[in-house]
Amino acid sequence: MPRFVAFLGSINVGSNKLLMDDLRHVLRYEDFDDVETVAASGNVLFTHPECPSEGLAEKMAWIIHDEFDIESFVAVRTRAEVEAIIAENPFGPDKDNGGEEKFVHTIFLEGTPGEHQVKALIMDHEGRGQERIAAGTNALHVDYVDGVGRSNLTGDFIERRLGLRGTARNMRSLKRVVSKLEELEQADG
């Protein structure tokens, strides 16, 4: 069976507390197999019978809402898709003029923003901070040069400008997820 990673938004933020043990337990009873989590921020590795990623994202979001009463955006990707998103990020530490792994983020989006939406976001943010922004494949790449905690470029600001929900992970987290997926796939043989 194919192996996937789900990036959950709005988990363990504010009042949306969710123990990863509880999440793993529930998902195992809903046709998600080999369920593992990476960090408590909502990175779920799993296998599932062949199904479009969008269908799996909707299913997982529904389960989280039904079982835990948490509205969560879920982005499901394969290892190859996560590796591609890391490679396309123009701000990665391995790129010329790249940023620090902990400050360089990919925001997984529920769709692809139009070029005009990204330009409007960049213009609306101009003068508000030093962040660098670039469009990606169903994603937005951001270098939070001075750190996320100090930034005015919040998830809400981005979602309102793009009209798309999303969830962010920094480069360090993405590499950790890919490494764990590689490890599991090698163990699968």
Tags for this model:
22% strand; 189 residues; single chain; Alpha-Beta Plaits; 6 helices
CATH topology of the largest domain: Alpha-Beta Plaits
Identify the CATH class of the largest domain: Alpha Beta
* Sequence of secondary-structure elements: EHEEHEHEHEEHEH
From the helix content, strand content and strand pairing, which structural class follows?
Answer: alpha+beta
* Average of pLDDT: 91
* Strand-residue proportion: 15-25%
What low-confidence regions span 5 or more consecutive residues with pLDDT below 50? Answer: none
| CATH architecture descriptor name of the largest domain | 2-Layer Sandwich
Number of helices: 6
Largest sheet: 4 strands, antiparallel
Radius of gyration: 16 Å
**What is the number of independent domains?**
2
Strand order of the largest sheet: 2-3-1-4
Question: Can you lay out the helices and strands and say which pair or pack?
Answer:
Layout: E1 3-8, H1 20-28, E2 33-37, E3 43-47, H2 53-68, E4 74-77, H3 79-88, E5 104-109, H4 115-125, E6 132-136, E7 139-143, H5 155-162, E8 166-170, H6 171-188
Antiparallel strand pairs: 1-3, 1-4, 2-3, 5-7, 5-8, 6-7
Descriptive overview:
It comes from Pontixanthobacter rizhaonensis. This is DUF1697 domain-containing protein. InterPro entries: DUF1697. This protein is of the alpha+beta class. The protein folds into 2 domains: 75 residues, Alpha-Beta Plaits, CATH 3.30.70; 93 residues, Alpha-Beta Plaits (2-Layer Sandwich), CATH 3.30.70. It has 6 helices and 8 strands, in the order βαββαβαβαββαβα. Strands 2-3-1-4 form a 4-stranded antiparallel β-sheet, with helices on both faces. A 4-stranded antiparallel β-sheet has the order 6-7-5-8, with helices on both faces. A hairpin with a 5-residue loop joins strand 2 and strand 3. Helix 3 runs antiparallel to helix 6. The model has no long low-confidence stretch (mean pLDDT 91).
